[in-house]
Write a structure and sequence with these properties.
This protein has 2 domains: 57 residues, no CATH class; 109 residues, Leucine-rich Repeat Variant, CATH 1.25.10.10. It is mainly α.
Amino acid sequence: MQDLINALDNVDYDVRQKAKRALLELDKETVAQPLIEAVYSNTQRMCWEAVSLLTQLRESRAIPAFGDVLRSKNPMLAQVAARSLVTFGTCSVPVLVEALEDTANMTRVQIVKALEEIGGHMAVPTLLRLLESTDSSVVRYTTIAALGVLGDERIIPHIERYADDPDHHVQERVEMVLRKLR
């Protein structure tokens, strides 16, 4: 099996695909832990492929490892981890919320979108803190949109503060969310 795991880092796409197919045919219990360990490999390609496979296997034991990938210096890996965590639904919300403070803005946007898609209502207080603390207009309008989807009317006073935001995209999101919630 280790040869298959190592093949996940092969530069040849076909070799990686063949290894992935073979790993997916193995018993989930047999392959899960080696794949979780591969998430922590020193190569981005292997990490990417391991995250992909663990997501396909819906291996919830990988959630903490995905949380570590969210903090990766590679924003593409971090964004893949955020998207993958959606697969696990509400049990991934704590990991997503915890990572919000330690990630780059590109990753924060994906985390906010993941929380929106999951319906992570328990994330509302964290999203409000993020909204108040970020200097990124992209993070602001994405967070405002997510809060609107989550649909908690108690956020209205928090959202209204951004009606005159310097960024017109933020202003538009505020208008849309307020129309929806009122």
